[in-house]
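About this split. The held-out portion is used to measure sequence recovery: a designer receives only the structure tokens and must propose an amino acid at every position. Recovery is the fraction of positions where the proposal matches the reference. Here is one held-out target exactly as it appears in the evaluation file.
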């Protein structure tokens, strides 16, 4: 049975991506957490919360991964994602739920046998720190492809003018991942910014569904959208990580360029990604997709969860 492994730093858009992945990939899903938007401990706590609200406490394995970049670098996005990584929406959750997950024993990435399933599609939606380790854990031959929400090529970055957050956080791990030779698709800011979720859509989702899960996702997005309104005068947000999930789900819906990717690993250009066409490369960057389809599947998801 094919397996999808989602590696995530569990911020606001990661939560939406996880719920979408659960819908699309059902029982064939495993999860690991990594530092990035928040600390790896907070990311793991958020993953456990979502697992409970998805009613999958025994069928969605979660593994705790790296707490900083391979070169020791660390940062966060608490201003955008909130102290809890979810727009401070966890403050409204039942105390009993928080107490329940606090009692779970955590599994460390690589310290147990990997989940069963092959081939494995590895989807990274945080810094790439865990990715080489996950490949080694499953075995190189078991990983059929890697899909990463990372980089920016023909647009400005979101950390600075040249770098996207995930690539900036651990460019060394990103370089190691691309050097593995496994077919890899990068889903950069270039394509993620072509799809938007409006504040109206999130409010409708919250009111239509009414479940604790929908309330958590929608409430988390309200602070996220406030940040976009302040910085980009946008009444909505870009669902970055959900786009990577869609690229793993139906890659044929995406327009991609094949070539070599160069990554700057030191300041002042840390995380800058550049592209050079090469027909023989195992690396592709997604620069477009069937936008009507992508918007439609997200709207359908928000109206039917």
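Reference sequence for scoring:
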């Amino acid at each position: 049975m094919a397996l999808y492994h989602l590696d995530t730093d569990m911020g606001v858009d990661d939560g939406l991506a996880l719920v979408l992945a659960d819908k699309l990939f059902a029982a064939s899903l495993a999860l690991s957490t990594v530092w990035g938007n928040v600390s790896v401990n907070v990311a793991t706590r958020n993953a456990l919360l979502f697992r409970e609200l998805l009613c999958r406490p025994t069928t969605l394995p979660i593994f705790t991964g790296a707490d900083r970049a391979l070169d020791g670098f660390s940062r966060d996005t608490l201003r955008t994602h909130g102290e809890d990584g979810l727009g401070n929406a966890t403050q409204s959750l039942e105390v009993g739920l928080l107490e329940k997950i606090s009692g779970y024993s955590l599994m460390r990435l690589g310290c147990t046998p990997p989940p069963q399933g092959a081939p494995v599609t590895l989807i990274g939606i945080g810094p790439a720190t865990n990715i080489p380790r996950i490949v080694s854990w499953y075995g190189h031959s078991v990983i059929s492809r890697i899909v990463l929400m990372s980089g920016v090529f023909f647009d400005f970055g979101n950390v600075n003018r040249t770098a996207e957050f995930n690539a900036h956080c651990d460019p060394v791990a990103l370089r190691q991942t691309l050097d593995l030779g496994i077919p890899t698709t990068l889903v950069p800011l270039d394509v993620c910014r072509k799809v938007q979720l409006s504040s109206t859509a999130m409010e409708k989702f919250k009111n239509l569904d009414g479940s604790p899960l929908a309330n958590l996702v929608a409430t988390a997005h309200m602070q996220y959208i406030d940040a976009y309104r302040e910085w980009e005068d946008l009444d909505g947000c870009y669902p970055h990580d959900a786009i990577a999930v869609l690229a793993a789900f139906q890659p044929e819906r995406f327009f991609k360029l094949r070539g070599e990717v160069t990554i700057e690993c030191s300041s002042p250009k840390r995380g800058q990604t550049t592209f050079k066409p090469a027909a023989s490369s195992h690396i592709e960057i997604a620069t477009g997709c069937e936008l009507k389809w992508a918007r439609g599947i997200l709207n359908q998801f928000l109206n039917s969860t």
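Annotator remark: Residues 3-302 form a domain with the Inosine-uridine Nucleoside N-ribohydrolase; Chain A fold (CATH 3.90.245.10).
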